[in-house]
Amino acid sequence: MDTSTWVVIGIAGAVVLWLIATYNRLVSLRNQAQNAWAQIDVQLKRRHDLVPNLVEVVKDAMGYEQETLKQVVEARNAAVNAKGPAEIGAAEGALTAATTKLFALMENYPQLKANDNVMQLQEELTTTENKISFARQFYNDSIMGANNMVQSFPANLIAGTFGFTTMAHLDIPDAERAVPKVSLR
Amino acid sequence: MSVPSSVPAPTGLTGTDFLSAQRKNRRMTRWLLIILTLIAAGLGAVIGAVLEFEGGTASDAFGALTGPAAIGGASLLAVASLSWSGIALGFGDRMVTGLAGAKEVTREEEPQLHNIVEEMALAAGLPKPRVLVIETEVPNAFATGMRTSKAAIGVTRGLLQTLTRSELQGVIGHEMGHVANLDTRYMTIVGVTVGLISMVAEIALRSMQWGSLGRSRSSSSGKKGGGQAILFILLIVFAILAPIAAKLVQFAVSRQREYLADATSVQFTRNPEGLIGALRKLTEAAKPFPGVSGATQHLFIVNPLRQFTSRTPALFATHPALEDRIKRLRNLGT
What we know:
The complex is a heterodimer of chains A (about 180) and B (about 325). Chain A has one domain: LemA-like domain (de novo design (two linked rop proteins)). Chain A contains six helices and no strands. Chain A has helices spanning about 5-60, 65-80, 85-105, 110-115, 115-150, 155-160. In chain A, helix 1 (about 5-60) runs antiparallel to helix 5. A four-stranded mixed beta sheet of chain B has the order 1-2-4-3. Chain B has helices at about 20-55, 60-65, 70-90, 95-100, 110-125, 155-160, 165-180, 185-210, 220-270, 270-285, 320-330; strands spanning about 100-105, 130-135, 140-145, 150-155. Chain B has a domain at about 20-95 and about 185-330. The longest helix of chain B has about 50 residues, at about 220-270. Chain B is mostly helical and about 325 residues long. Chains A and B meet through helix 1 and helix 5 of A and helix 5 and helix 7 of B.
C-alpha cells in the first residue's frame, strides 16, 4: 500500500475515534444531568416529609402563629401534588418562602432553641433546602454543558442522529435563595 | 529557564468570576509543572554531560551537554520522577492515617458536619467523602485523597465550635474544592519530583566530594581540562540551585492550589462571605497542634505552623497571605 492509502486509513480511523468519543461524552453528560435531577427529587421528597414533623413539634409553643403554620402545611401539600417542572418549581418556591417565614418566627420563641428535637429538625430542614439548591445548581450546570454540546457543531450532527435533545433548566423562584435567618452553631 | 514573573501573586486584580479564576490558577500550575520538569531534566543533562566527559567521548563542554549521555541523563530523571510519582499515587490515601488523631465520625455523632459535607458533595457532583475530626481546640481543616471517589475531609473540634454554619460551609467547600481539583494527587507528584531532584543533586555533590566524579581532573590537560572545569562549575551550581528552585516551585504550586480551592468553594456555595469570615477566624487562632508537622502543613486550609502575612517572604510560603486570599475572594463577587 502506498502513502495516500495510509493517510486515508489514518483519517478514517481518527473520524471513527472522534465519533465514539463524542457519543460517549453525550451519554455521560446526559447521565450526569439525570443523576442530578434524581438528587433534587430525593431532597424535595425529604423536605415534604420533614415539614409536617417540624410543624408538629412547634405548634404547641407557637400558639399565636397558627396562620403561618397553616400556610406552611398548605404550601407543603401543594408541592406534594405539583406536576411538571414549571408547576413543581413554583410550588417548591412557595414552600421555601413559607418555611423561611416559619424559621424567622421561631426566633421569637427561645424555648424552641432549648428543644433538641426542634433544633435537630430545623438543621435537617436547613440542610435539605441547601441540598435542593446545590443539586439544582449542579443540575443546571450539567444541563448547560450537555446543551452546549448538543447544539454546537460538529457534535450536533451526532446528537441529532442519536436523538440527544436539549434539556430544560429547573427554575425555582428566588425565594428559594433566601437562607433562613437562624444562627446555628 | 525563565519563571513567569507573575507566579507568586499577580498584582492588579481585576473583577473576575470563579470560573476564570480557576482557569487562571490551572494555567499557572501547568507552567510551574513544566518549570519543575525542566529543572529535573537540566540537572540530569549536566550530570550526564559530566559522566560523558569522564568516559572521554566528548571533546568540549558543549559537545558533552548535547551528547547522548546528557540527553539520556535528562530523560532518565524525567522518567524516574514520573514512575516514582506513579508508585507514590498507588499508596492511595495513606496520608490520612499519617495525620495523628484524625478519627472518622458517624452521622449520629456529628449530624451537621455530615449534612454540610453532603451539601458540598452535591454542589460538586461528587461522591460524599469520609468525614474525620481531630480533637483539638485549634480551628483548622484538611482534605486528602488521590481520587475523588476515595477522599476524606477532616476538621478540628475547634473549627466546629467557633464557626457559624455558613462559615463552616465555606471551609468544607474549600476542602471539597481540593478533592474536586485532585490537589492531593497534584501535590504528591510535585513533592515526589522535588524529593528526587534534591536526592540526585545531593548524590552528585557527594560523589564530586569523594572523587568518584572528576577523578581524571589532574590527569587531563589543555582544551579538554578547560571544558571539564566549565562542566564541573555548572554541575556544582546546578546541584546547589536545582533543589532550591524546585522547592520554590513546590511552594508556588501549593499557593496556586489554595487560591483555586478558594475559588472552587465560592463556585459551590455562591457565597464568598462565609469563607472570608472563616479565614479570618482561622488565621487569628492558627497555631500548631499535635499531629501536625512540616510534612502535612500544606494539607490544611490555613498553615498551622506559620502565619503568612503580606510581609513574610512570599516565595517560601505554602499558603498565600490571608489578605491576598480575602482580596481575591472579594473580587469574585457573584
